[in-house]
Amino acid sequence: MTRMRSIWVPTTLVAALALVLGLGAPVASAKAKPVKLTIGYSAWPGWFPLAVAQKGGIFKKAGLSVKLKYFVDYTASLDALAAGKVDVNAQTLNDTIFAVASGAEQRVIVVNDNSTGNDQIICDKSVGSSIKDLKGKTIGAEAGVVDHFLLLQGLAKAGMTEKDIDFRGIKTDAAASAFEGGQFDCVGVFAPFTVQALKRPGSHAVFTSADFPGVIPDHLVATAKAAKNQKAMQRLVNAWYMTVDWIATHPDEAVTVMAAKAGVSVAEYADFAKGTTIFTPEQAVNAFVDRPGDPTSLAEMARRTNPFLVSSGLTKKTADLKGLLVGKYTKAYVKAHS
Predict the structure, then answer these.
(1) What are the helix and strand counts (H, E) for the chain?
(2) Binning pLDDT at 50, 70 and 90, where does residue 295 land?
(3) Least CB-packed of 23, 114, 149, 193 within 10 Å?
């Protein structure tokens, strides 16, 4: 499977501010009433731009009044969306499908990025470079979410299952700390927690999301109720691309904000760039197109992920994928800027 890796060519900041703020409508006036949204997010390089949007007043410029909630615990953010405690949450495709299979009604509104190496299965020096070397090893990861999913993908590729290892379910931040302290042979974590895990002498990544291109796309996902507010969803899309443009034109300022939120140095944060590929609007539109057999299509990846979650024991039944992927707002954005 391949993924989109085009180079981002930013528009100017002036163009970024000249965005549609309703369904293809002109920019709202300064006096226009902002639309309220509560947005949840957690530690991931593809979602730290939200901190930039908040600090730079970009949500307000896009016609939104946003309450941005940061979750140290990624699972807590998933639970918050499922319970309707936030209108929108930053989460992966597989975790969204898991929620829908469990009865939640959710809609993918924004495609942020694809993980191209920042999700990692890291092991100590007792483990070699082959996935088969994981047999019998204790592996910690947050149960039921993204890096557990990656671990299962790797095991399946090697003809193994979770029964071939000693899996320990543990929160991602605690997993990184426990592995550094020598409690597990291996750990499944995502950036920025990879930085802590790799501090253990002799530790190394056996495989990463780069070995499974297209498998872990990241999104801004809305509750079905919030998604009915079309004006809010269009402005959310607009705000996201305003932010991405601003980051491209002010990289030093943006990285400083994002590194501070991630709790790492600017140099460490810069290393995350190659492991998370932010989509251009055009790439995002392409991702929303249903192309059977093509893994760069979100619909195709959702169809592949759905039964895998069941066969791996993460869900009891497949999710109803109808209406899950909502690409019309991204299409409207691109049309307004073509």
Answers:
(1) 15, 11
(2) confident
(3) 23
Q: For residues 3 and 116, what is the distance between their CA atoms, to the nearest angstrom?
A: 9
- What pLDDT score was predicted for residue 191? 97
Model pLDDT for residues 210-226, shown as the tens digit of each residue: 999 889 999 999 999 99
SS3 labels along 114-148: EECCCEEEEECCCCCCCHHHHCCCEEEECCCCHHH
CATH architecture of 13-114+216-336: 3-Layer(aba) Sandwich (3.40)
> Which amino acid belongs to residue 283?
Q
Q: What ranges do the domains of the chain cover?
A: 13-114+216-336, 119-211
Tens digit of each residue's pLDDT (9 = 90 or more) over 69-114: 999 999 999 999 999 999 999 999 999 999 999 999 999 999 999 9
Whether 13-114+216-336 and 119-211 share one fold: the answer is: yes
Q: Is the dihedral of CA 323, 327, 332, 335 positive or negative?
A: negative
pLDDT in tens, 110-126: 999 999 999 999 999 99
CATH of domain 119-211: 3.40.190.10
Q: Rounded CA gap, 122 and 140, in Å?
A: 10
φ, ψ dihedrals at 165, nearest 5°: -130, 175
Query: Can you list the alpha helix ranges (DSSP code H) found in 46-92?
Result: 49-55, 58-61, 74-82
Question: pTM of the predicted model, to two decimals?
Answer: 0.87
